[in-house]
Design a protein that fits this description.
Length: 311
């Protein structure tokens, strides 16, 4: 069973529009409402691909009930601590060109000390039954910035691989625990690379830096449709074709993490792992919902991934 942690999940509402007119009304052509948050998305995709996943974190209010029910209907096991307030709504205004979308994120409810302790207790219990841990997304108010480091340490002490996709100091602190994979956010590339993000070299330097910290997979998104992977078998630039892309919602990065978890679980080699993870990302970017169409659909994209070995 794979544990996914989303401490600040969301209901994602996506409005598909022809245009956004600032200072006036815009009519949506259609609307989608989905459970969201990075770990939640990974749990959904893992389950769709035949892996059992438990989604953990905090839920609140009507949005919290909606997420819990949607996950259960999708056969994802849920283990959330219910808190006061309302789980946030993240609004995505999507235009025909996915590069022109706009999003608005709510903050989400504050977590108090008692709920935090309850979550930690549940997490430690779950770790005993888990084979891997995925940690993703923003930290809600009330959670100390050491949280991801602490969660990663607990998992590592139990011998589990940890996959982290977060940002800011909580992310940087978690790197000290040497997770199996760290997905570097755009906002941290300059800091990790120690130089301005003005060329591919900066992305590579950030991925190397992460790998040199003892993290087997240092992954950095390179512009929108590529990723740099620093591994002990070399550094790779992987790119995907973008012609069929529809989604503005950034689930491709969650699909990539899902692919890495599965690639490791199935003992794939370095290049096969990258291809598989990238194929998961391509597949997820071809539709606006969270429903990966299955393994065969992902495998159909394997040859759309171009892989360049940089060193
Ligand atoms: O505010 P965070 O936690 O960084 O990101 C939240 C979020 O953008 O991440 C997911 C996509 O990765 C969405 O489902 C969700 O709305």
């Amino acid at each position: 069973m794979i544990v996914t942690v989303t401490l600040n999940p969301s209901v994602d509402e996506e409005y598909l529009l022809d245009e956004i007119v600032l200072g006036s009304w815009s009519r949506a052509n259609s609307t989608l409402r989905m459970p969201g948050g990075r770990g939640v998305n990974v749990a959904l995709m893992l389950t769709q691909l035949g892996y059992s996943a438990v989604a953990m974190g905090f839920l609140a209010g009507f949005n919290g009930e909606y997420i819990r029910d949607a996950l259960r209907r999708a056969n994802v096991t849920t283990n959330f601590v219910h808190i006061q307030g309302e789980t946030r709504t993240n609004v995505y205004l999507s235009l025909k060109n996915p590069d022109e979308g706009t999003s608005i994120y709510e903050k989400g409810p504050r977590v108090d000390d008692e709920a935090r302790k309850r979550f930690l207790m549940n997490y430690k219990r779950m770790i005993n039954r888990a084979s891997a841990v995925v940690i993703g997304g923003s930290l809600p108010a009330g959670m100390p910035k050491e949280t991801y480091k602490e969660l990663s340490l607990v998992a590592k002490e139990a011998g589990l691989p940890v996959y982290i996709d977060a940002y800011g100091s909580p992310f940087l602190m978690a790197l000290e625990t040497q997770p199996r994979m760290a997905k570097v956010p755009d906002t941290q590339i300059e800091h990790l690379a120690g130089r301005p993000v003005d060329s591919l070299e900066a992305y590579v330097a950030a991925a190397h830096k992460v790998h040199e910290m003892g993290i087997p997979w240092g992954v950095v998104s390179y512009q929108v449709y590529g990723d740099v992977f620093a591994t002990s078998h070399g550094t790779y630039l992987a790119k995907m074709t973008r012609d069929k892309t529809q989604a503005f919602l950034f689930t491709a990065r969650d699909a990539l993490v899902t692919g890495m978890v599965i690639a490791d679980a199935e003992g794939m080699g370095t290049e096969d792992s990258i291809r598989f993870a990238m194929a998961c990302a391509i597949e997820s970017s071809t539709h606006v919902d969270r429903n990966i169409k299955g393994r065969a659909s992902i495998e159909a994209y394997l040859d759309k991934v171009t892989l360049e070995k940089l060193d």
